[in-house]
Design goal:
By secondary structure, this protein is α+β, with helices and mostly antiparallel strands. It has four helices and seven strands. A three-stranded antiparallel β-sheet has the order 3-2-7, with helices on one face.
Length: 127
């Protein structure tokens, strides 16, 4: 009987995970790929220079990578940023702040600008 209840629980959890992933994948018309992917107008090194190591993260000795998904519209504006994996200490918020203020060259398909989501990672390393 316990085994049967465990199987039902597992199926229910898996169904919830699959349903939530299906909801996330709609992303309001943002493509996963484009012939030309969006890129920062000033280049990625310029974004990295704008990121300030959060004081809390520095004091706590936090290091690692923050992985995000940036949603870039047809005009090159970052509409949204979703954290895929973070390290805490304010690092995710700093990456979001900088990305939302960054202008991108829009993604292109057949010479037309398109909405594209793009993944980025930023390393936080204490010197």
């Amino acid at each position: 009987m316990k085994f049967f209840i465990s199987i039902i629980f597992l199926v229910t959890v898996l169904a919830d995970v699959i349903y939530s992933q299906a909801q996330v994948s709609s992303d309001d018309g943002y493509l996963a790929f484009a012939q030309t992917m969006p890129e920062p107008v000033e280049g990625l090194p310029a974004i990295i220079k704008k990121i300030q190591y959060p004081t809390i993260a520095r004091q706590a000795g936090l290091e690692g990578k923050v992985f995000v998904m940036a949603y870039v519209d047809e005009k090159g504006n970052v509409d949204d940023v979703k954290v895929l994996k973070g390290i805490g200490g304010g690092c995710e918020e700093e990456v979001i702040r900088v990305l939302k203020s960054t202008k991108f060259k829009p993604g292109m398909n057949n010479g037309q600008p398109v909405k594209v989501k793009t993944s980025l990672s930023f390393a936080f390393k204490l010197k």
